[in-house]
Amino acid sequence: MPEFSYVARTAEGEKVSGAVSAATEREALATLSGRSLFPVEVRADSPIASATTVRRVPAQVRATMYGQLADLLGSGVPLLRSISVLMRQTAHSGLKEVLQEVHHHVEDGATLAEAMGRFPRIFGEMSISMIRAGGEGGFLEEALTRVAEFTETQEDLRKRTAGALAYPVVLGVIGTLVVIVLMIFFVPKFDTLFENLRQRGELPVVTDFLLTTSDLMWAYGPYLIGAMIVAGFFLVRWLATETGQLVRDRIRIKLPIVGKVFLSLAVARFCRVLGTLLHNGVPIVRSLEISADATGNRVLGLAVLDASENISAGESLAGPLAASGHFPPMVVEMIAVAEESNTLENVLRNIADSLERRTWRQLDIAVRLIEPLMLLLLASVVLVLVIALLLPVLKMSTTI
Fold first, then answer.
1. 3-class SS of residue 173
2. Could you give the C-alpha distances from 259 to 134, 249, 263, 328, in angstroms and in order?
3. Cβ-proximal residues to 211 (8 Å cutoff; 6+ apart), any chain
4. Contact, 51 vs 122, CB < 8 A?
5. Taking Cα atoms as reference points, which of 314, 313, 334 lies closest to residue 322?
6. pLDDT at position 24, please?
7. CA dist 166 to 111, 175, 292, 367, 370, Å?
8. Packing angle between helix 242-254 and helix 298-312, nearest 10 degrees?
9. Kindly report the CA angle at 237 between 232 and 238, in degrees rounded to 5?
10. How large a percentage of the chain has pLDDT more than 70?
């Protein structure tokens, strides 16, 4: 149970301080009143759950929770009762703790959005903003349903992307490991066999290079592995910085073949989030700020933030998006027309649907191209190894 630190005064006016255990701040105040104390300040010291103690709740679990909450509210079940039902039904311990805290805060008089807003890493800014707009506009059930649908759509998109790229990644990793094993354990066995040719200077250049590389890998392998680990550690630290993320995302959208796929997915995500937020009554400037984070790409996010500044100054959205050079001209043109016709929210969602369909076709083509290219690259490396080892053998046979 959480601990609440308090500063209070007695009936005689004496100032006292201490701590009290209570489920909510309201219960803490009631406990102090029962002790004939008049609270001056009450502060929570140890909440049951927080965004730091509950690190992550799977998207599918959250989507189910949103949908069930919308169904309960739509059936006339009061909000507190609905949250209690979800607490009992959920099998995810982290979500159960978070819902318990949400229940306490709603019981203390907070709105659902304010209670969920204490856990931005769990629910996300976009979902919280949509629920806040639904609560203020009187369409909370509809907002929760849309949040559930959006969460499921985004999770499905993420899984399909990861599934499509899984085979090329696995193929690349296995191919690299095979080549390393050949270089370290197989190639050195030919070193003594070709020693005479090397001393006479008759060893082919490619074979000499292969044997030298293998010897270096065998002799300095541990040092190379250590250097790679250290370099990887510093690379991860650098990628966690603002500059590192910006450089990484800029490289990601410039990659051959898959760069267009990453860019299209980020633009589609931006359009869907912005269109959904605007459709739920969230102000456009706040919607753009949330959409900038939702793109998943720092380069596009900065372009969207620049656009939000232009919107605040009374300008259009399409202009700064076009000036960034990262948004497809067709998308920018459709946004410009939508702004003039005041149909931006609907057009944005249509753009997202169109981009996602096109992206899946691009991703399918990219994967079909990457697979044979990686197989060809792996086969070429193995072929070079075989030729480098066979050339001296053929030379020795000819000499004999």
1. helix
2. 37, 10, 6, 13
3. 187, 188, 190, 191, 194, 198, 203
4. yes
5. 334
6. 60
7. 42, 14, 27, 10, 12
8. 100
9. 95
10. 93
**Nearest-angstrom CA–CA distance, 269 and 294:** 7
CA distance 378 to 322: 41
Band the pLDDT of 47: cuts 50, 70, 90.
very low
How many whole angstroms separate alpha carbon 262 and alpha carbon 254? 9
Question: Which tens digit of pLDDT belongs to each residue from 158-189?
Answer: 787 778 778 888 888 888 888 888 888 888 88
Higher-scoring residue by pLDDT: 135, 12 = 135
Helix (H, G, I), strand (E, B) or coil at 195: helix
Whole-prediction pTM: 0.63
Half-sphere exposure of 29 (CA within 13 A, CB side): 9
Residues 6+ apart with CB under 8 A from 114: 105, 132
Structure tokens at 344: 């931006």
Contact assessment for residue 32 and residue 39, using Cβ atoms and an 8 Å cutoff: yes
Question: What does DSSP say about strands 38-44 and 15-21: parallel, antiparallel, or unpaired?
Answer: unpaired
Domain 70-145 has CATH 3.40.50.920: no
146-400 CATH pick, 1.10.10.10, 3.40.50.1970, 3.30.950.10, 1.20.81.30: 1.20.81.30
Tens of pLDDT, residue by residue over 52-97, are 455 678 888 899 999 999 999 998 999 999 999 998 888 888 888 8
DSSP state of 5: E
145 three-class SS? helix
Task: Give residue 310's identity as a one-letter amino acid code.
Answer: N
Amino acid of residue 54? V
Q: What is the pLDDT of residues 93-149, one digit of tens each?
A: 888 888 988 888 888 888 898 888 888 888 887 788 778 878 877 788 888 888 888
The angle, 0 to 180 degrees and rounded to 10, between the axes of the packed helices 59-74 and 79-89 is: 140
- For tokens 């100032």, name the residue: 15
Of 72, 61, 59, 62, which Cα lies nearest the Cα of 141? 72
* pLDDT at residue 69, as a whole number: 92
Give CA 238 to chain center in angstroms. 18
Q: What residue spans define the domains of the chain? A: 3-44, 70-145, 146-400
Q: How far apart are CA 130 and CA 116, in angstroms?
A: 11
